[in-house]
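Example 9 (inverse folding). The structure is encoded as follows.
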């Protein structure tokens, strides 16, 4: 029995890599991160669903809660003079 001939590694075609979508866990092939416009996701849909989860607060990074902008800055009360003016 003869062994199969491995592909020529000196060919000009870029080598494909396997990725796994963090959203749906589906495997996908890509040649480079720069050429795969949805990386690390498999599709625009998975990318949009993930972004929506961040924007609606389903995903959070643990830590101290940051005050809302209107609570973070309180304008100082105007100082009144002791003579009533």
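The amino acid assigned to each position is listed next.
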């Amino acid at each position: 029995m003869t062994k199969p001939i491995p592909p020529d590694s000196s060919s000009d075609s870029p080598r494909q890599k396997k990725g796994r979508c963090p959203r749906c866990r589906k495997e996908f092939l890509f040649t480079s991160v720069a050429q795969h416009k949805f990386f690390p996701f498999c599709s625009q849909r998975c990318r949009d669903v993930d972004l929506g989860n961040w924007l609606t607060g389903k995903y959070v990074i643990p830590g101290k809660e940051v005050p809302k902008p209107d609570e973070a800055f309180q304008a100082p009360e105007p100082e009144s003079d002791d003579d009533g003016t």
